[in-house]
Amino acid sequence: MSAVPRFLRTPEGASGALILAALALMALLAPVIFPNDPLSIAGPPLLPPFQDWSLPLGTDRLGRDVLAGIMHGARASLAVALAAAAMSIMVGAVVGTIAGFAGGLTDEALMRVVDAFQTIPGFLLALAFVSVVGPSLTVVVIAIALSAWTGPARIARAEVLSIRERDYVAAARVVGMRPAEIAFREILPNALPPVLALSAVIVASAILTEAALSFLGLGDPNRVTWGGMIAEGRTVLRTAPFLSIFPGIALVLAVLGVYLAGEGAVEATAAKRGYA
Amino acid sequence: MPRVLTIVRRRLLAAIPVLVLVTIGTFCLLEAAGGDAVDAYVGMTGGDAGLMEQLRQQWGLDQSAGNRLAAYLWSLAHLDLGWSVTFSRPISDVIAERLPNTLLLMGCAIALSFGLGTALGIGAGARPGSTRDRLLSVASLALYAVPGFWLGLVLTVIFAVQLRWLPLSGLETIASGKTGLAHAADIARHLVLPVAALGFIYLALYLRTMRSAMAEVWRLDFVLAAKARGLSPRRIVLAHVARNALLPLVTVLGLQSGAMLGGSVVIETVFSIPGLGRLAQEAVASRDTPLLLGIILVSAVLVIAINLVVDLVYAMLDPRIGSGDAE
Question: Under an 8 A CB cutoff, do B265 and A216 touch?
Fold first, then answer.
């Protein structure tokens, strides 16, 4: 059985894939179903949900369509999380490869930097970075990556340390490949699988970090984000709690989908090796 | 040298380069922020270019970046974190005032997530693969997917707004004049919701770690021996399997302390608890970068301290660690 059907056959993998597919569909269809700016006024303010079928989830304090916000929010949330995860895995893999392959003083210096980054609570670092540079989508991506690249770096380094003693690396040396070439063309690709195994956790925590940053008002002010909607709804929590609850449910589903898909992938690979 | 001292010394030596790097990093961020303390001060009080020039000379801000970094490191070495323009007080005073509240919140949240997570993990790991195990695993995954600040808001809606069982926010009833036990009970009532919001999120981590560590231990020979001796299943689970699976939990506890400190920023903001996290949010809102970086430095020291304690606990649980040759 090949990888994808095996993945979909695990209950976790199937449910995770279903949730993520639904979210991706929401993100893709948002501009088709709701071509208007989700930040524009669509109806009377504070319309409760399930009353008016043209505004099924109601409106917020300023009369903005909650459903349109949630669907457009899926775009920002997923885009930021995927970009930040890709960035932290790439940076981490490169730094880890350099540290593990070069060894000696380079390794020592790079790993102390990794230590320093891991000593600062990731969220505080992201918070400080965004508040110093100013909130925009790119800055939020970099901020999240800053707090998440150390895990991949450590794992890549450990993997490189074991790979660099293998025969095919020695063969590459004999053939006369330059060290940089050996590190990035021979070793890095082979060190990637265990690093990629982290991606579910990294994407999930990126979604949560982005939401927390937007909740504190440090998201891109020109875009709808789930965290921003929750913060906005918080001002009327007593009278209209649904404004904070709906985007939160979307958030929980997105993170849960990523975790479930990750679990499914782990189980599928374990089954391949004949453990389970 | 006693084992404990060896561990403490090694940890402290390793902490020095890390702290220097963190300091240089925060200094770079401070530089990147653009605008200095004088801009912030004059922005609040008003003043002309002449005054700004004079203040810059007075505060040493007209020096080169290298000199200022040296001065920054020098004052940090004297535990002087600088001056907060927002509070018009030394940053170290403001932080010292807020830190105990955060430690209280974090301590309770860690106790909750560690205690309950371990107990549920034993429940799941007692029979790996059982229905109870699968249910607990999925439930913990769902809980882990919940953002702390949102859980806090939902709990507030249910328990403070609808049921009115618990106070909405803050750390104590303002000007209640309560003392002694009544005062402590008042604080405890205020802490229930924020501790639940912060602690429940991280519970899943302990549950899952405990469960998978127990799954490993079940395969070991001494468990088979315990079964052969006819011990009761309850005794095997608790005294043999769970007990030997505890070590990884301590590691997670150390790793998680930083994340929880970060999580307390949003939780303290949601519940208006005057702690370090809310201070960070206030520093961001009022663009008080030196204060924010001071908080980061203090958090880094806190994380190092927690990990030192974790290392010592680890050494207590496992006598092979730090005995000299086991490096």
Answer: yes
Q: How far apart are CA B91 and CA B80, in angstroms?
A: 8
For B:237-266, CB contacts with A below 8 A are 258-259, 261-263, 265-266
Q: Which of B150, B155, B207, B211 to mutate to test the interface with A (most CBs of A within 10 A)?
A: B150
Strands (E), A45-178: none
pLDDT, tens digit, 9 for 90 and up, residues A34-50: 887 787 777 777 778 87
Portion 146-185 of B in contact with A at CB < 8 A: 146-150, 153-154, 156-157, 161
Q: How many CB atoms lie within 10 A of CB A180?
A: 10
**Rounded to whole angstroms, how far apart are CA atoms A127 and B249?**
28
Look at A155-164, B62-71, B157-166, B218-227 and tell me which has the smallest mean pLDDT.
B62-71
Residue-wise pLDDT tens digits, B265-320: 899 999 989 999 899 988 888 878 888 889 999 999 999 998 888 888 888 877 77
Contact (CB<8Å) A217/B285:
yes
B contacts of A208 (beta carbons < 8 Å): 147
Q: Both tokens of residue A235?
A: 């001002």
Cα B11 to Cα A242: distance, rounded to the nearest angstrom: 49
**Identity (one letter) of the amino acid at B226?**
A
Q: Side chain identity at B303, as an amino acid letter?
A: V
Nearest to A122 among B259, B284, B285 (CB): B259
3-state secondary structure of A59: strand
In whole angstroms, give the CA distance from residue A91 to residue A152: 8
ipTM, 2 decimals?
0.86
Give the CA count within 13 Å in the CB-facing half-sphere of B263.
Answer: 29
**Are A109 and A52 a contacting pair, CB within 8 Å?**
no
Distance from C-alpha of A81 to C-alpha of A98, rounded to nearest angstrom: 26
Q: Which residues pair with A65 in a beta bridge?
A: A59
Contact between A9 and A35 (Cβ < 8 Å)? no
Amino acid at position B249, single letter = L
pLDDT, residue B108, reads 93
Q: 10 Å Cβ neighbour count for A57? A: 20
Q: Which of residues 128-187 of A touch B (CB under 8 A)?
A: 128-129, 131-133
> In what helix (H) or strand (E) does residue A133 lie, and over which residues does it extend?
helix A122-133
